[in-house]
């Protein structure tokens, strides 16, 4: 089928609609279950979550355990030790009411786990696979050099990495590297953390990358309904959508914050991964919430930045975060004072 994606050598086939379950940790259990069941009934079959997403796994188990063998579950472990690896795995299995996980991913490690290394993590994953508790070993990351190493290594069945029409040529080359090596490519931040507001444009663009499975972070029924429509009426690249993409690229590519969170925590408690992209967010989403007391306080806290540079040393995209924060605060003040319209 045109809208099916095969994840490399895993042979896993999924509609281009995959459910990103990070946002459902922000809604109550019954509403999350309603979303998950509606997604399944409409044709979603791939559900991506993580042990670190608070109660997301529990909600998946609550909503979908009855159709477990009809779906693909991908989750993530964020372990520091082999003991934590096993604890995370057993917890995920218990919460999702299953005895196996289809794709078990190392969650944004600072290195590429390998057999026999000091961490012992990859060997633990192999043992779990031998026991039948996981089917495929994956890895997620934001650091291009680690992602490239993983894609070349022959060790990983899938790679999850930020990918959208705002990303650059190196990211596109990574997609092709995965294709060449039989590695399934799962695209996180398919809407670039909310900066892309036209899901039809994103969906049409992804159709050009037939080996990429985008996961759409879904929190509201209206968001889900958009993607459900694409099962029967998938958007195609036409002049209108091409114009949207070109406009977004002209406004957003370059030094924009991807909201990966690697910069955190901040010693001055600045919410960097939101505040450093406020100028884009406030223009691309309903602005009322961003002008309220909570966000005013968060933005004005930028004035407490000491310039320590810890954030910049941890940013995988080498952004000039300190000046990016200052520029966003100056723009925010101009918006509040009415000197700039949005």
Please characterize this protein's 3D structure.
By secondary structure, the protein is an alpha/beta fold. The protein has 2 domains: 4-242, NADP-dependent oxidoreductase domain (TIM Barrel), CATH 3.20.20; 272-336, no CATH class. The chain is 42% helix and 14% strand. It has 14 helices and 10 strands. The strands form 2 sheets. The chain has an 8-stranded parallel β-barrel, surrounded by 4 helices. Helix 1 (29-42) packs across helix 2, helix 5 (144-153) packs parallel to helix 6 and helix 7 (199-206) crosses helix 9. The longest helix is centred in the last third of the chain and has 16 residues, at 321-336. The model has no long low-confidence stretch (mean pLDDT 94).
Annotate the secondary structure layout.
Layout lengths: L3 E3 L6 E3 L2 E3 L8 H14 L3 E3 L7 H9 L7 E6 L4 H14 L5 E6 L14 H10 L3 E7 L3 H10 L4 E5 L6 H12 L3 E5 L10 H8 L5 E6 L3 H12 L6 H14 L19 H4 L2 H7 L8 H8 L9 H5 L6 H16 L6
Helix pairs in contact: 1-2, 5-6, 7-9
Given the C-alpha coordinates, what overall shape results? globular
How many domains comprise the coordinates? 2
CATH class assignment of the largest domain: Alpha Beta
Q: Gyration radius, to the nearest Å?
A: 20 Å
Tally of DSSP β-strands: 10
CATH fold label of the largest domain: TIM Barrel
Could you give me the name of the CATH homologous superfamily of the largest domain? NADP-dependent oxidoreductase domain
What structural category arises from helix and sheet content?
A: alpha/beta
Could you tell me the strand content as a percent range? Answer: 5-15%
What is the correct CATH architecture of the largest domain? Alpha-Beta Barrel
Q: Give the number of helices.
A: 14
Mean pLDDT: 94
Helix share, percent: 40-55%
* Poorly predicted runs: none
Ends apart, CA distance between termini: 42 Å
Strand order of the largest sheet: 3-4-5-6-7-8-9-10
For the report, how would you describe the main beta sheet? 8 strands, parallel, barrel
Helix and strand pattern: EEEHEHEHEHEHEHEHEHHHHHHH
């Amino acid at each position: 089928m045109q809208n099916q994606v095969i994840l490399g050598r895993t042979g896993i086939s999924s509609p281009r609609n995959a459910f990103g379950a990070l946002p459902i940790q922000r809604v109550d259990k019954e509403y999350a279950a309603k979303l998950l069941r509606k997604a399944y009934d409409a044709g979603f079959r791939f559900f991506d979550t993580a042990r670190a997403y608070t109660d997301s796994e529990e909600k998946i188990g609550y909503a979908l355990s009855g159709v477990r063998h009809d779906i693909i579950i991908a989750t993530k472990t964020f372990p520091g030790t082999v003991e934590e690896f096993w604890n995370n795995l057993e917890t995920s299995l218990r919460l999702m009411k299953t005895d196996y996980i289809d794709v078990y991913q190392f969650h944004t490690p600072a290195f590429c786990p390998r057999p026999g290394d000091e961490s012992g993590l990859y060997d633990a994953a192999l043992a779990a696979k031998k026991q039948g508790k996981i089917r495929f070993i994956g890895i997620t990351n934001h650091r291009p050099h680690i992602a490239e190493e993983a894609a070349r290594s022959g060790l990983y069945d899938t790679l999850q990495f930020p990918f959208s029409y705002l990303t650059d040529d190196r990211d596109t080359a990574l997609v092709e590297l995965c294709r060449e090596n039989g590695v399934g490519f799962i695209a996180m931040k398919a809407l670039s953390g909310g900066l892309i507001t036209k899901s039809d444009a994103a969906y049409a663009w992804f159709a050009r990358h037939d080996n990429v499975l985008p996961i759409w972070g879904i929190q509201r029924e209206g968001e889900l309904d958009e993607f459900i429509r694409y099962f029967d009426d998938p958007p195609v690249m036409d002049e209108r959508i091409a114009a949207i993409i070109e406009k977004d690229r002209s406004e957003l590519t370059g030094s924009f914050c991807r909201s990966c969170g690697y910069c955190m925590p901040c010693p001055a408690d600045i919410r960097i991964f939101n505040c450093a992209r406020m100028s884009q967010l406030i223009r691309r989403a309903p602005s009322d919430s961003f002008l309220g007391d909570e966000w005013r306080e968060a933005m004005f806290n930028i004035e407490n930045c000491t310039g320590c540079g810890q954030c910049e040393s941890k940013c995988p995209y080498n952004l000039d975060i300190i000046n990016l924060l200052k520029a966003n605060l100056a723009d925010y003040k101009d918006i509040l004072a009415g000197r700039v319209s949005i």
